[in-house]
Amino acid sequence: MMARISGKKMRAGLFLAGALIAGAAVAQQTVGDAADAPATKLNLPQNMTVFGKSDPNVYKATAIVNGEIITSTDVDHRLALVLLANQGRVSDEERQRLRLQVLRNLIDETLQIQEAKAAEVEVKPEEVNQRYAAVAQNFKRTPQQMDAYLRDQGSSARSIKRQIEGELAWQRVLGRKITPFVNVGQEEVQSIIDRLNASKGAKEFRLGEIFLSGTPETMQETMQNGQRILQQLQQGGSFQAYARQFSEASTAAVGGDLGWIRAGQLPDALAEVAPTMRVGQVAGPIPVPGGVSILLLIDERQVLTADPRDAVLSLKQLAISFPKGMTQTQAGPQVAKFAEETRKITGCGTAKPIADSLSAEIVDNDQVRVRDLPPQLQDILLNLQVGQTTQPFGSLEEGVRVLVLCGRDDPESANGPSFDRIMAQLEDERINRRAQRYLRDLRRDAVVDYQ
Predict the structure, then answer these.
(1) pTM for the full model?
(2) pLDDT of amino acid 294
(3) pLDDT at residue number 28
(4) Domain 186-306+421-447: CATH class, spelled out
């Protein structure tokens, strides 16, 4: 079917497509054996030969967006990235819902790339390859190793590169058509600085956000989508991966990271929730103007107040590993000996001889911020004196280790609020709102043929 559709109708179309697929499956199940064939009013032979065979390498279109094809393979490869972020822990029902959401994202991505081409915005292949190499490095792989890894996971380098191209293209379109026309007055910035100075010592939050747009007519559906995403996150899904794939805010490209922000700078609904959260907790979906948000509390601190967790530590790590297949019982004596010997460390100078006696690996790191460590270790290290060690920690799979505190540089008093940073934050918020309206207009004017 060929139609000019709005964002609302597009979403309805995707869920209707799912319903039609389900209906087709039921219809197939109700077909009887060959003896019942006449009831269909079709003159079907009881003994038949099928000539030719289906070719699994022929990829049929799932949607055609303004003449550009999105194949089922495109959807499968992008869906595999979402499943990878969930470590495969997704039910069949959830997989189908994610597939429909991925299709919607690919339609938006296609519209953004098409708009960039119409505006003669160029994204060079070498730029995409450079970003892809950075992604591979995050996975501690070369681009070639990343290619093979993605194939093994049922995805492809092409899928990630397409997403990178879409993000770069859209950012440049916004930079040309929206950013130059967004103005923030110096008085506005100064007003915020004055409020920050007046609220010294108040809490400040570093938040991640997944924003799903919705209208009054589609809000129930949007809330349901938000609930499903929240469930996946609570089961161990990667917030950053979900934000990149599903968030409709401009922060999707950076995994939904809003940066440091005070409750008063958030919409009222989010301002009520953020102070009640614990670091690492997700909350939502929370109704906000224009849709719903899912929040992640990445970190928190006090405004304009030095935070002990900003201290920079000098550490030594001693680690032992275990052969594959060793049980907890078998490893017990070795762990006990490791704990007993490392308790004898009385300073970093004595760490190496003890490590050698245990055949332990030793690693130095002189630039570790406390807040960059796992929350379980932060309080332990803040309470250690120089020369002391942590309790052993780890697992059979990853090995057991201890940390020795060799030195600590305590943070200086926090600097005052940055005029430029606050102005940039206000500009980003306004660009984000206009970008959402821009994309809604592209959806409204799009010609999409669902196959």
Answers:
(1) 0.49
(2) 93
(3) 33
(4) alpha beta
Cα(255)–Cα(239) distance, integer angstroms: 7
* Residue in this structure with the two tokens 């917030």, named with its chain if needed: 239
Q: How many CA atoms lie within 13 A of 307 on its CB side?
A: 21
Q: Which CATH number fits domain 2-26+57-173: 1.10.4030.10, 3.40.50.2300, 3.40.50.1110, 3.40.190.10?
A: 1.10.4030.10
Element (H, E) at 2: strand 2-4
- Dump pLDDT digits (tens) for 281-301: 899 899 988 889 999 998 887
Same fold for the domain at 2-26+57-173 and the one at 186-306+421-447?
no
Distance CA 32, CA 323 (A): 57
**Tens digit of each residue's pLDDT (9 = 90 or more) over 208-228:** 999 998 888 888 888 988 998
Residues in the chain: 451
**Distance between CA 440 and CA 82 in Å, rounded?**
24
Q: CA-CA distance, 82 to 243, in Å (whole number)? A: 10
- The 10s digit of each residue's pLDDT in 230-247 is 988 888 888 888 888 888
Q: Does the domain made of 308-409 have the CATH classification 3.10.50.40?
A: yes
Structure tokens at 245: 């794939």
* Nearest residue to 159 (alpha-carbon basis) of 145, 146, 173: 146
Among the ranges given (29-43, 74-88, 136-150, 386-400), the one the predictor scored with the smallest mean pLDDT:
29-43
Q: Where in the chain are the domains?
A: 2-26+57-173, 186-306+421-447, 308-409
Q: Report the alpha-carbon distance of residue 20 to residue 96 in Å, rounded.
A: 13
Q: For 308, how many CA atoms within 13 A lie in the half-sphere containing its CB?
A: 7
